[in-house]
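Many introductory courses stop at the sequence. We go one step further.
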Amino acid sequence: MSALKEFSKQLDNTRIEQAINDAENLTSGEIRVVLQAGKVEDPVQRAEKEFARLKMQETAERNGVLFFVAPDAQKFAVFGDQGIHQKCPESFWAEVAAAMEQHFRAGDPTQALVEGITRAGTLLATEFPREHDDRDELSNEVVNRPADDSLPKGCGSRNQVMS
């Protein structure tokens, strides 16, 4: 059985999707989670391509955040769009990644993702508060990608190893 299948069994997608919904209720920002099977050498590069594939760069304020997890490679990346990078310090992303890594190492991938989503949501709510006419621009569903899924060339930014 692939690491993605085993990893997916450990996840509580409902809880993750609820964390995305809760975070997005406070911000105009958009958050997505992608799980990628197979070998991934550079998770940031793959996250960048997946970001483009999901058209996250098309959000009105360029304030999307992608949590990309490659269980087979035991790597993950948190990738934010241009609007976010203009407003948030590099140290913030290092703190998010460190908090997530603790939960991954403890064998709690759901909490790792919920923690990252919650922290990103708090920052997004401060920098990109929800407006009265804001709408959810992207799905909150966790995306599972097979190992052989090809990606288009794409759009940068954080990288951590889960092992």
